[in-house]
Amino acid sequence: MAVSAHEAVSPGPVRDHTPPARRSGGRGRSVLEVALLTVLAVVMLFPVLWMIETSIKENRDVYAIPAKFFDFKVTLDHFRDVFVASGGGPSTLSVSFLNSVVVAGVSTVLATVLGVPAAWAYSRFGVKAKKDQLFFILSTRFMPPVVVVIPIFLMYRQAGLINTQLGLILIYAAFNVPFTIWMMKGFVDEVPPEYEDAAMLDGYTRLQAFRRYTLPLLLPGIAATAVFALIFSWNEFVFAIFLTSSDNVRTAPPAIAGLIGGTTVDWGLVAAASVVFALPVLVFAYLVRKHLVAGVTLGAVRR
Amino acid sequence: MAGIEVTALHKRYPDGTVAVDHVDLSIGDGELFVMLGPSGCGKTTTLRAIAGLERQTTGDIRIGDTLVNDLPPAERDIAMVFQFYALYPHLRTRDNLAFPLRAEGLPKAEVRERVDEAARLMRLGPLMDRRPRRLSGGEQQRVALARALVRRPRAFLMDEPLTNLDAELRADMRTEIKHLQGELGTTMVYVTHDQVEAMSLGHRIAILNKGRVEQIGTPLEVYDRPASLFCAAFIGSPPMNLIDVEVADGKLRGQGGLVLTPPPGLPRDRGLVAGVRPEALEVTEPGAERSVPARVVSAEWLGDELIYVVDHGGRRDVRVRMPPTVRFAADAPVGLRHTGGTPAVYDVSTEELVA
């Protein structure tokens, strides 16, 4: 027995002599893969790197020809300019960043607060014409938002919502609710309804059962969904530029775009503002990356 | 403890599907009552209506003397065990068991005493400090049963509690549940789609199909005299042979010359089908006394028995259960003989038992 056991183990080292052609082929392929991926990464990331570089260059280095990649003087003046006005006090950009935080934050909370219970209801209850309702909800996202800019503008003018944060919050929430309902319904479907049944038998009401048992299990999904909604609201440009006009209401995307188009463009400031603008979403997405992946795959692969 | 009366229960969903179609059940105090049927037959909906998790469209449900139509689940004094065990994932076994009692607001000492008692009954000792994810399926289901026990409810409702377990464990748990129910004497309504489970557990079985009750009876009654063609085809493995017959010369004659003893009081003017259990037939040497000529189509040897599929010139092949000692080769010419008593006879058009 001992001998056969030894023989059974022996193929281990032999495996190193597997056909050389296949091995080198595998190595060749992986070298090619790495090379292609590197090229792709450089192409994809170069604008980002260039933006970051521009944000820490002095203006004369920004315009230098040939372009300076490494040997320039690092300055943080542009970042100071993003937040502080030239005469002291907060800059108009910093106001618009604050506006973005308020608008994106509140609209995301609103969409989540409305969308999660709706998704739960669609998942758990026998709603009349459920499929048609869900399709209708989804259909509001079929057309590009740009199509409704003019009608919304006219409606908002009647309602006095033009150039208000509330106006932007409402329109962003309206765009995010259908998305939230659909994505969250996938998550709720994954949570066995028996938890709620058992809790109800134990003396809780439907809503208590939802809050105490289903909701905690949904938190990863809610996080993922909220991040998507937040990114949409944070990045939104078209409605922001149509529906706001004054600096104290305007959000960051149109404000940054507004920096370009004068007689001279302060590219350093544009780049610094863009870096500041991109950071919160990156950080937030990084923090919830695990849930984000789970969210995308869970939402996509339905039972 | 209490019996359960279900009267004219009807459940229609908003989308128009009728899940339960005027079901009447009368479940005795201390009875182990099984609802059996294929998926979508309404058995689970009926159970959920009894539990109060589903509101019936019309009809009454009484637990004991109480009309519970408008009571929320918690006030019906019942406990339910689910197919998916529904243990709270963030609680240890001990707290999972104590949970319903704490929700009721019982004093601590009594909670501990009842939890310990249930743990002892279900032999949960070493599992008490684990969370559900660290328990196997069988262990989780034992915890779920214990959680139902601690409530000391008037009735247990079991929704396919063993379906997710593997075959061996399922047999063990079946014995355990039956023993437990006998010990406690608490009314139990048990839903399953597994006929073996139904036969071995139930004091009485209700067979449901398309939201209607097809038959209610003891396992023996259900097996011996299925009330409809659906029940005949559903109970038994292999199921009953359904043989087209007609009455002639005081005998029931099937195709291929098969002769059966007719039950009294048969109507003559209708198409009839006889239900014959595989063990009520016999494969013999060709030309044996009272046998009709037939041919073996295939033979399944199951160790303790042989199932022959036999072609005797009828519309369908016939299945015959034989002891494993009797061997006929496939395609061999044989004889087929009816050895049982009078068969159950069904009307072809109504699909119901006529005699």
TrEMBL record, chain A:
Residue stretches making up the ABC transmembrane type-1 domain: 97-288
Keywords: Cell membrane, Membrane, Transmembrane, Transmembrane helix, Transport
Source domain of life: Bacteria
Membrane-protein topology: Multi-pass membrane protein
Residues spanning the membrane: 31-52, 97-122, 134-156, 162-182, 213-234, 267-288
Principal location listed in the UniProt entry: membrane
Stored InterPro entries: BP-dep_ABC_trans_perm, MetI-like, MetI-like_sf
Pfam families with a match to the protein in the record: BPD_transp_1
Region annotated Disordered, chain positions: 1-26
Annotated compartments: Cell membrane
Similarity comment text for this entry: Belongs to the binding-protein-dependent transport system permease family.
Protein name (record): Carbohydrate ABC transporter permease
UniProtKB/TrEMBL annotation, chain B:
Cited InterPro entries: AAA+_ATPase, ABC_transporter-like_ATP-bd, ABC_transporter-like_CS, ABC_transpr_MalK-like, ABC_transpr_MalK/UgpC-like, Mo/tungstate-bd_C_term_dom, NA-bd_OB-fold, P-loop_NTPase
Stretches assigned to the ABC transporter domain: 4-235
UniProt-recorded Gene Ontology molecular function terms: ATP binding
Domain of life: Bacteria
Keywords: ATP-binding, Cell membrane, Membrane, Nucleotide-binding, Translocase, Transport
PROSITE patterns: ABC_TRANSPORTER_1, ABC_TRANSPORTER_2
Protein name according to UniProt: ABC transporter ATP-binding protein
Species whose genome carries this gene: Sphaerisporangium corydalis
